[in-house]
């Protein structure tokens, strides 16, 4: 069966597959994607594919259809069942085989998708396989004339938890009460297995029931509204720290003992210092949206900072190219060389717990060492002509811009610690703005100037900073 190019390209994006279930993604479609993925992996020498899925209602059937597409191409399938995305990456590394995770991450319940990887959790993005998969789905996946593969099941949850704990020194920590908001997502499945066995940790669970309809709030902690319940819960329970995970539990957001959110950039800087104590001079990757405090801290700690485009496939490729020990993004994705270069919010959480528990200061005081600038968070604009908007913004700041680079969108250095980045989203029809400066007042001024300029170009809707 062949499909229209427009329909396929709408769903197979820069570094994953994602769309509305029933309208853009169905069982037949994912079976074809599974077949195309299997053909690509078979040509590279793979013999089996490991498949996991999240708690969305549509996930089991879609994962089964994908598995059927793989089996028909002669590759074996190992199913690990319910899993977080980083648990799937663990299985890919453990079994040394390609993997597919069925999830739409933080998107609403009506969506689903697939995150694909090669053996050892190596990324599959547009330039490393997704474009070829798109072409085969559009043209029709050729049949395989050999025998079908075999299907087996394997539970890796306990192994995953044990492996993560082995990567962080969790001995001799002071007692910690840890509030965890799973958002009815996969952290409700993985947090007890990873954090539960730590003697110094007492879990205070919130919304651990797996429910792909997300009855309490969206599983997207990047939006401040979705952190409100955890912030209140931390204060209510007297927790030392709060952890919030997105739907597939690969991203971790942190709230301090006062209920205040901690910037993912500050978490990146904290974990970077811990990793650099293990390996002086190592490379640390940070995407271009993270705070300038990150490269500053890395240099001060004896490391080498390297900037990256936004997106997990880009950072993973750069991790492999440079041999970096760690990488972090503003969106709370954290990447570890010890974890096959893949991202694990749960592993980042273990590092934060270790850093907090091995000293006596509260988290708010500990993290103050890593928060040096004011930031806007991400401000999103829906626009009709992104290029015209960007050009107008560049003209607006032309008299002040000291440097402009185009690594990912445009990043404009305004001097004295102030800068902004404006870029098109890879996953949504949005123009995204991030601003940082030495004071909140200066940040607000820059955001207001950009907003006025974009508004003058196109009638649009501006979302609250996140």
UniProtKB/TrEMBL annotation:
Family matches, as InterPro entries: A-D-PHexomutase_a/b/a-I, A-D-PHexomutase_a/b/a-I/II/III, A-D-PHexomutase_a/b/a-II, A-D-PHexomutase_a/b/a-III, A-D-PHexomutase_C, A-D-PHexomutase_C_sf, Alpha-D-phosphohexomutase_SF
Q: Which residues cross the membrane?
A: none
State the superkingdom: Bacteria
CDD domains linked: PMM_PGM
Question: What range(s) does the Alpha-D-phosphohexomutase C-terminal domain occupy?
Answer: 378-451
**Key words of the record:** Isomerase, Magnesium, Metal-binding, Phosphoprotein
Molecular function GO labels:
intramolecular phosphotransferase activity; metal ion binding
Q: One biological process GO term for this chain?
A: carbohydrate metabolic process
Q: Which residues form the Alpha-D-phosphohexomutase alpha/beta/alpha domain?
A: 11-134, 159-259, 266-373
Question: Which cofactor is essential here?
Answer: Mg(2+)
Protein family: Belongs to the phosphohexose mutase family.
Q: What is this protein called?
A: Phosphoglucomutase/phosphomannomutase, C-terminal domain protein
């Amino acid at each position: 069966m062949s499909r229209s190019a427009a329909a396929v390209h709408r769903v197979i994006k820069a570094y994953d597959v994602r769309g509305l279930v029933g309208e853009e993604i169905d069982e037949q479609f994912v079976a074809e994607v599974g077949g195309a993925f299997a053909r690509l992996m078979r040509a590279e020498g793979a013999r089996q594919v490991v498949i996991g899925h999240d708690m969305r209602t549509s996930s089991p059937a879609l994962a089964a259809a994908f598995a059927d597409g793989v089996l028909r191409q002669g590759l074996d399938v190992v199913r690990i069942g319910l899993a977080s995305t980083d648990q799937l990456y663990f299985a890919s590394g453990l079994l040394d085989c390609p993997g597919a995770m069925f999830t739409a991450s933080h998107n609403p319940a009506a969506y689903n998708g697939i995150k694909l990887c090669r053996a050892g959790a190596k990324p599959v993005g547009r330039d490393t396989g997704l474009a070829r998969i798109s072409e085969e789905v559009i043209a029709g996946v050729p049949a395989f004339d050999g025998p079908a593969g075999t299907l087996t099941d394997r539970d890796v949850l306990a192994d995953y938890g044990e492996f993560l704990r082995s990567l962080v020194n969790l001995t001799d920590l002071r007692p910690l009460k840890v509030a965890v908001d799973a958002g009815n997502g996969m952290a409700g499945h993985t947090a007890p297995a990873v954090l539960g066995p730590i003697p110094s940790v007492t879990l205070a669970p919130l919304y651990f029931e797996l429910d792909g309809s997300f009855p309490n709030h969206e599983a997207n902690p990047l939006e401040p509204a979705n952190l409100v319940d955890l912030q209140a819960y931390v204060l209510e329970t007297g927790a030392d720290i709060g952890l919030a995970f997105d739907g597939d539990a690969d991203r971790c957001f942190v709230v301090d003992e006062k209920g205040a959110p901690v910037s993912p950039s500050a978490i990146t800087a904290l974990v970077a210092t811990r990793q650099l104590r293990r390996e002086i001079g190592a490379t640390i990757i940070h995407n271009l949206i993270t705070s300038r405090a990150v490269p500053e801290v890395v240099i001060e700690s004896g490391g080498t900072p390297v900037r990256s485009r936004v997106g997990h496939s880009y950072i993973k490729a750069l991790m492999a190219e440079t041999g970096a020990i760690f990488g972090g993004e503003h969106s709370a994705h954290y990447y570890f060389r010890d974890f096959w270069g893949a991202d694990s919010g749960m592993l980042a959480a273990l590092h934060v717990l270790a850093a907090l528990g091995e000293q006596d200061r509260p988290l708010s005081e500990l993290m103050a060492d890593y928060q040096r600038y004011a930031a806007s968070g991400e401000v999103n604009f829906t626009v009709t002509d992104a290029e015209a908007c960007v050009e107008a913004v560049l003209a607006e700041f032309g008299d002040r811009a000291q440097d402009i680079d185009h690594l990912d969108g445009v990043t404009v250095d305004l001097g004295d610690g102030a800068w902004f980045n404006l870029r098109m989203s890879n996953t949504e029809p949005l123009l995204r703005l991030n601003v940082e400066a030495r004071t909140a007042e200066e940040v607000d001024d820059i955001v207001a100037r950009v907003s006025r300029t974009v508004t003058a170009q196109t009638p649009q809707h501006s979302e609250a900073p996140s």
